[in-house]
Design a protein that fits this description.
mainly beta; 4-stranded mixed β-sheet; single chain
Length: 216
């Protein structure tokens, strides 16, 4: 979507006359041109028929155009405190490649929803998403910065045995206050990603890393 394509051929003889027909003939630049441009207004499959008349004889041929589409969903532009952390971007879609710019402050410029941190002034990011069908879309995300500095946070390491219950994180924030939280990853292994001390649901032996993506 948003592109134009030439159909037909400029090799057709100038001594002939041409007439295109089809449900979307109005989207052609010139229905009497042997090689008009087609600018679609919606995705779908479109078939055009070209009739060539020369020396009293007519012949026809068909061309089919498949129009793909892809667009990014609306993306929120958050406002955070100086040096705070926030995750931006859309929900990842299978087969879609994401490219963010500029890369300053981003955890990874090639994922759908990178983490932004360390900003002291507002920043406008641009994300280009390229779908498997080759269609692309762009969007801008503005990360606004409040003048207040972000709280300092540390989370002590938790050690527990498989099967233990009541294992929670105990973050230490300075200055003290009432904060809102959002822990990641949000994969069901925490009882509630929006509370200060979520319970960890131990599922296997090993080491797992969590982080409070947002606290303000």
């Amino acid at each position: 979507m948003g592109d134009s394509v030439i159909i037909g051929s400029t090799d057709n003889p100038a001594t002939a006359t041409f007439a295109w027909s089809g449900t979307e003939v109005g989207a052609l630049s010139d229905a009497t041109d042997p090689a008009p441009s087609f600018t679609p207004t919606s995705p779908g499959t479109y078939t055009f028929t070209l009739t060539k008349t020369e020396a009293g004889c007519s012949s026809t041929d068909e061309v089919t155009v498949v129009v793909n589409d892809f667009s990014l969903p609306p993306i929120a532009s958050p406002t955070i405190c100086q040096n705070a952390t926030v995750r931006i971007g859309p929900t990842p879609e299978p087969g879609v490649t994401y490219i963010w710019s500029p890369v300053a402050g981003l955890s990874d410029p090639n994922v759908a929803n990178p983490t932004v941190s360390g900003l002291t002034a507002s920043m406008t990011y641009s994300v280009t998403a390229i779908a498997a069908n080759g269609c692309a879309d762009e969007a801008a995300v503005v990360v606004g910065i409040n003048p207040a500095a972000a709280p300092a946070v540390s989370v002590p390491t938790v050690e527990a045995c498989l099967g233990d219950g009541g294992v929670t994180f105990q973050p230490d924030l300075s200055p003290a206050g009432n904060y809102t939280y959002r822990w990641s990853p949000n994969d069901g292994s925490l009882s509630d990603v929006t509370v200060e001390s979520p319970e960890v649901r131990l599922q296997r032996i090993g080491t797992r890393q969590y982080s409070p993506d947002r606290y303000e």
